[in-house]
Specification:
Elements (H helix, E strand, L loop, with lengths): L1 H23 L5 H31 L12 H5 L2 H8 L9 H8 L5 H14 L7 H4 L17 H17 L12 H12 L15 H11 L9 E3 L6 H11 L7 E5 L2 H14 L2 E5 L2
């Protein structure tokens, strides 16, 4: 049953990516398309992550009907310091993926809206321990690029399609997903456009199955370890597998990784947000 669910989730993810690609075919180069899809996926993920975190806290406090997405920005601002200290970043309610998506089709300045949202998310981490992790998180997605269209209207039309496509992805609860959705999307997109001569840059993605096998081989006979380190961590898939299989509480001094490619480095930051325990570093 678990294997069937995993394949169903993966097939749904791939189907939706193909649907977005068909919508944008002929307008956005395949390699650039990969960056846009991943950038919007990053945005959706961290929006859902912080919303779930806040809603769970309120529910535990007895406010079961609370929904962070419905809160005013001014009310959210009053909790900024605490949220940034605990989560490492903040997304204001009006800037959450679901709320921007709901307004996208009618937003004549959608490109400016997204640019502002991305800058605000990155700047929310300034002066904190997570500042380096969030700096440049959305550098790969240029919402004002002529590659999206020659006019603002054309660019916004395609940005709406991107938002709708990513919003249509049935990812479920990210904590219950049997696949590493972001890593799997990256692997699939790499495969789609691997034929673009000279553009792979030597990028390689280790499948989740291989990461799991390596993890289980490494921890044979061990109940806990001192540290977990991956010198070329990519999307953080291997680090995530250690956290999930061994248990992050059984890794005494943390998870560490290095990655030179900004796109895959950003994927590892998503892994860090998910686990609240990974340490990734972009190498020059």
């Amino acid at each position: 049953m678990a294997d069937n669910r995993k394949e169903q989730e993966r097939a749904e993810l791939h189907r939706t990516i193909w649907s977005i690609a068909n919508d944008l075919r002929g307008s956005v180069d395949g390699w650039d398309f990969k960056q846009y899809v991943l950038g919007i996926l990053f945005y959706r993920y961290i929006s859902e992550n912080i919303t779930a975190y806040i809603n769970e806290g309120e529910c535990e406090a007895g406010n079961a009907a609370f929904n962070y997405a419905k809160l005013s920005d001014s009310d959210a601002e009053s909790a900024r310091e605490d949220l940034v200290n605990t989560k490492g970043f903040l997304v204001l309610p009006s800037e959450l993926f679901e709320n921007v998506l709901a307004r996208a089709a009618a937003d004549e300045n959608l490109n400016e809206t997204l640019e502002t949202v991305f800058k605000n998310i990155e700047s929310s981490a300034q002066g904190t321990l997570s500042e380096d992790n969030f700096k440049g998180l959305f550098d790969d997605i240029d919402v004002n690029s002529n590659k999206l269209g020659g006019t603002v209207a054309k660019r916004n039309e395609r940005l709406v399609k991107l938002l709708n496509g990513v919003g249509d992805m049935k990812l479920g609860d990210y904590r219950e997903n049997t696949i590493d959705a972001f890593g799997d999307a990256y692997e699939f997109l790499m495969g789609m456009y691997a034929g673009n001569a000279g553009k792979s840059g030597g990028e390689y993605y280790t499948s989740q199955e291989v990461s799991e096998l390596l993890t289980r081989l490494t921890i044979v006979g061990k109940n806990e370890v001192n540290k977990v380190y991956d010198p070329a961590c990519g999307s953080g898939s291997l680090l995530l597998k250690f956290a999930k299989i061994l248990g992050k509480e059984n890794v005494r001094n943390g998870f560490f990784g290095q990655e030179i490619n900004i796109t895959t480095y950003n994927l590892s930051i998503i892994a860090e947000i998910e686990q609240g325990a990974l340490m990734a570093e972009a190498s020059e």
